[in-house]
Amino acid sequence: MRTQVITLLLAVATLFIACESDPIAKAKFPEPQTIECEAGDKPSITLTMEYDWHLSSDALWCKIYNLTEQVQDIAGSAGKHTFTLAITNESQTLTDSVAHLTLRMGKRSEVVATIVRKAESAQLHIYDSEGNPTETIVLGFDSYNSFSIEANFRFAATDIPEWIDIEGGAVSGNANKRITSGARIVANGNRERYPVTAEDGYVITFSNEDGTISFDIPVTFEGMSDMDITIINSAGVNCGWEISLDGKEKRIVDDFTGEATPYEGEISYSIAAREDKFEVVCFEMKIECGIPTYILDPEWIKFDRTKMTLSVDATEQMRYGLVMAFPTGIYEEIKSDIKGAIFELDYTSGIGIETLKYDYMPYTMLDFVQKDFSEVGAYDGMYVYHSLTAYEIPANVYNNEAIMAKYGATIAYTCPFVNAVDGKHPGIIIDPRIEGWTTATQESGRATAELWFKERQLKISEGEYYMGENKDEVMAIHLWGPNDNFDEEVYVVFKLDGITKKLLVVTPPTK
């Protein structure tokens, strides 16, 4: 036991003597210091070392200049030394970065400097539709104006004025990834008339996920061009209108359900155009023998520019109207031949029908029919329409008592036949609206019809007419016309159980 104690004492004594003989163990290290800097800076630090030394940095973005070379560590002999540091932006984030300079002398080492690199500043850049840097987002009018955004943080548009429409409804992006979006003004008939400048103070705010970073980007709008127009009427609907013959009652008919909704009051408008300059153009659609054509500037359609209201004169006959408004730029292009510019011939039916071109449909103010609102019985009147175009041919009351007596009719109507068409064989389809005159009664022999031309009875077998259902699956006469030259009336006598119910006098077609 004694021998072990003596051995331990000798070891401690040997270690003490060794330390006493190693002067580096007593070396004084420089006082620790802190250096704050930014990426790109070249701060310097002066250190006094008593012995040979080794200095190292623990961050790749903080290097030490060794003459012209940037190194991660460096060594030297005792003395006073000044070191220049290279601070790069490598791995820089939106929070501060910290590096340490560690000095080693002999077997001892201590941190002699803490380098604090300030956080990268948040950046967000806007580019126009051509990719050029810009300070604002320019709004489109009737289409989205594209722009691009790139930021060094994940972002999203967090505050958008309600009168701005962002393509897709939202915009967001990841850090350092350029994304493209679009924006346009939400037209309301007024705001689009005027330009918006950056000085007006309207902005779109882009923020990071936690809301600690935000950028307000001004928005601008150049205003409408003279090719732009916004048309809004008081009902928000420009088609499907019906107006009574006296011009006082109005209703809107749903294209799908056929349901008519009454509309009270005047038809008023908000029309936005550059400098409030626009031209209103009116048409009447006339239907001659089932073929529609448009007549420019009918006097019975009235638009009051002071009140911005639309009205029509009273009439006794059904008629059709189309009202349009054009910005000055468009109007100047078409005014020399308005009809020729905005209408085209549609041959879908086999006949060229004047039809408004698709590109001009947005300029429609009102598309309507003026008609009798009084209730018509299911078996009143007579319905006649063109076999190819399906447009109605008015059947008017006929009062020739001698002819009516000849065919035993107490109710009679008259209408014109349709004109010939090259390569086609048009005719008229007649629904007499007679109670009990149906497909079933026709098949049983109760419902019949006689067609007379120059005292000659027309024949189904010769293709001059036939009896069958029309497009609404209602029993009808399909009259193709006599094989002889159609230069006199055709008398169509509708009978039920051998009794004449109605007479239709079809006059020769116009030439």
What oligomeric state is this? single chain
Residue share in β-strands: 35-45%
The tally of beta strands, per DSSP, is 42
**Main sheet overview:** 7 strands, mixed
**Domain count:** 4
Structural class category: mainly beta
**Fraction of residues in H or I helices:** under 10%
Overall mean pLDDT stands at: 92
Rg computed from alpha carbons, rounded to a whole number of angstroms = 46 Å
What is the helix tally?
Answer: 5
Shape: rod-shaped
Report how far apart the termini are: 144 Å
Unreliable segments of 5+ consecutive residues:
5-20
Instruction: Give me the side-by-side strand order of the main sheet.
Output: 23-22-21-32-29-25-26
Structural overview:
This protein is mostly beta strands and 511 residues long. The chain folds into four domains: 28-117, Immunoglobulins (Immunoglobulin-like); 124-221, Immunoglobulin-like; 229-371, no CATH class; 383-507, Immunoglobulin-like. Helix content is 8%, strand content 44%. The protein has five helices and 42 strands. It has a seven-stranded mixed β-sheet with strand order 23-22-21-32-29-25-26. It is rod-shaped, with a radius of gyration of 46 Å. Mean pLDDT is 92; it is low at 5-20.
Topology overview:
Elements lengths: L1 H20 L11 E5 L6 E6 L3 E5 L4 E5 L2 E3 L1 E4 L2 E9 L9 E9 L2 E10 L6 E4 L5 E2 L2 E3 L5 E7 L3 E5 L4 E3 L5 E2 L5 E7 L17 E5 L6 E8 L7 E5 L7 E4 L5 E4 L6 E4 L3 E7 L4 E11 L2 E6 L4 E4 L4 E4 L6 E9 H7 L3 H5 E4 L6 E4 L7 E8 L11 E4 L9 E2 L3 H6 L5 E5 L11 E4 L7 H5 L3 E7 L2 E2 L7 E5 L5 E5 L10 E7 L2 E9 L4
Parallel strand pairs: 1-9, 12-19, 21-32, 35-42
Antiparallel strand pairs: 2-7, 3-6, 3-8, 4-5, 4-7, 8-9, 10-11, 10-13, 13-17, 14-16, 14-18, 15-17, 18-19, 20-24, 21-22, 22-23, 24-28, 25-26, 25-29, 27-28, 29-32, 30-31, 33-36, 34-35, 36-40, 37-38, 37-41, 39-40, 41-42
